[in-house]
Design brief:
mainly alpha; about 70% helix; globular
Length: about 260
């Protein structure tokens, strides 16, 4: 299964098609994401095990949202039950994927500490807000190499994780194989990914202006467009997926935007 190479302009198309998919059930998307957010925040507050457990379960939660996207794509309704799809099938592989990502984060923090970023890493790992911004500024200014190295390594980890949960769940890939494919897909489509990322940065600025209310729309589009992106880069994988209940395939509204 080889990721497809696409033109840079396709990054904008992903956003448009993600918006069209969101508009199939806008209120339900907002409700589902609020439920996810509240549940994950509550879980992360559990002493000692909360934050690691949240990281372990994140791929399974993401898969639930992607299953919701697939249901809408094939003419079905978006349901709360979709959120639990990753906890019913291939759960062990998805939790393993979350574990690899968690270990990767700790390894990156370890590398940052070795090159002079111990103070900054301590602040980041404390999970507590820093009351004095000057402390953060001094920690960053004294860890230039650590910051650059950390940003680079976390970017690679993010690229490797971007499509990995979908590849594990929909395509039966192993966690490591899925991460390799995801990283290759990102590198092969760096132009489209750049357009996609810049578009969301601009939309995030606009969404933040009216008291952050625009995020009620933008956040669901982050996930719906991610699903469209995955299907576009791995078209053969999508063709092999059965259409639920014989529904019709999703065709984006060409008139959007």
């Amino acid at each position: 299964m080889e990721p497809k190479r696409l033109q840079a302009g396709q990054g904008w198309q992903w956003v448009k098609q993600g918006y069209a998919l969101f508009m199939k059930a806008p209120l339900l998307w907002i409700v589902l994401l609020l439920i996810c957010f509240i549940a994950m925040v509550a879980l992360s507050k559990v002493p000692v095990v909360g934050e690691p457990l949240t990281s372990l379960l994140m791929p399974a939660v993401l898969v639930g949202l992607m299953v919701g996207c697939r249901a809408l794509e094939h003419g079905e309704e978006l349901e709360l039950a979709h959120l639990f799809s990753g906890f019913r099938q291939r759960t062990a592989q998805l939790v393993t994927l979350g574990g690899i990502a968690l270990v990767g984060q700790f390894l990156i923090f370890g590398v940052m500490m070795m090159v002079g970023g111990a103070t900054l890493v301590g602040i980041l790992m404390s999970g507590q807000p820093v009351e004095d911004p000057e402390i953060v500024r001094q920690a960053i200014s004294g860890a230039g190499i650590a910051v650059l190295l950390g940003l680079t390594l976390f970017s690679v980890l993010l690229m490797a994780m971007q499509f990995a949960p979908m590849l594990v769940y929909f395509n039966n890939a192993t966690p490591l194989e899925a991460m390799k494919l995801s990283l290759r897909a990102f590198v092969n489509n760096i132009g489209a990914m750049s357009v996609y990322g810049v578009t969301f940065i601009l939309l995030a600025i606009l969404a933040s202006i009216p008291m952050m209310l625009g995020w009620l729309v933008l956040l669901p589009i982050v996930f719906t467009s991610l699903y469209v992106c995955y299907c576009d880069i791995f078209p053969a994988a999508k063709e092999n997926q059965p259409i639920p209940n014989g529904g019709d395939a999703f065709t984006p509204d060409k008139g959007m935007f």
